Amino acid sequence: MSMALATSSSAASKKQISEEVSWEISTEASYVAGSQVKSGDVKFGHFTETANSFQAVASRYLAEGMILRLGGAWERYSFGTPADSPLPNTLQSGAAVMGVDFQMGSEWLVRFEVQPGVYSDFSDLTFDDVNAPATLGASCLFDKDLQFVFGISVDPRREYPVMPGAGLRWQFEDRWTLNAILPRPRLEWAASENLTLHAGVALKGGSYRLADNFGDTHRRPGMNGVIVDYSEVRAGLGASWKPHPAIEVILEGGYMVWRTFDAWARNVSFRSDPAPYGGLTITAGF
């Protein structure tokens, strides 16, 4: 679940002054080395993983205290699966991003966002692959150094459709910030004006529908058209460099410590051993 909002309500207020369209663009690429995948005591070989994502969202001031957000998002997990694997080699989503920010006074920012689109293995697309997960989040600026964030994630296809969450962003020293906000809680140290180092975790995943004939082609008929909840937890270190105030380049590395493929409706679950990973993220705003 993502609860990422503006880092401060004052920043959102400044954004509202202009009626011009502004853009937020981000792209990410990462690689996870091979790790053993199991279901109970049965082993299915070593899987590698390549993950890529891209998102572009435009924002425009609508009325006092209201900002419209529209754009698109794409995410793909590609797994190096053995030939006889009972798991898909691709989980992917392509969705629209539709949301509204509400500025409530100088302290509160509320965001509602829905991402209707296709969430599946993209091998046999049908209307059944369409889903519309949504997030409702609120950010409270307690003071210039402390911000609280609350949120609810709703995904009709997930085993647990509604999941609450909370976090905070606390700059407790001049160079130290606890940025404990999902999906990337971390501890940050500002090495210089343009360079920040961090240690933390990243939560990744989603709910995806497999093709109607997936089980037949993988010798598991019970997996035809099933929903798979994919979950991944990474822990590592990273560096964030700003070559320009509007551009951020993030380099990370560490371990993928947890990964599961959970076909919960069939009571079938697969998990991975830990494995090292590396990743690069680039964000820009203009």
Number of strands: 17
User: Count the helices. How many?
Assistant: 2
Summed up, the domain count is 1
The first-to-last residue Cα distance is: 26 Å
Assembly type of the shown chains?
A: single chain
**Overall residue-averaged pLDDT value:** 92
- The unreliable regions are 6-16
Give the SSE string.
HEEEEEEEEEEEEEHEEEE
Structural class: mainly beta
Work out the strand percent: over 45%
Proportion of helical residues: under 10%
Describe the protein in words.
The protein is mainly beta and about 290 residues long. The chain has a 17-stranded antiparallel beta sheet that branches. Strand 10 and strand 11 form a beta hairpin. The longest helix is centred in the first third of the chain and has 8 residues. The chain is globular and about 55 Å long.
Which properties best describe this structure?
single chain, 286 residues, mainly beta, 17-stranded antiparallel sheet, 2 helices, 17 strands, 65% strand
Summarize the structure.
This protein is mainly β and 286 residues long. The protein has 2 helices and 17 strands. It has one domain (9-285).
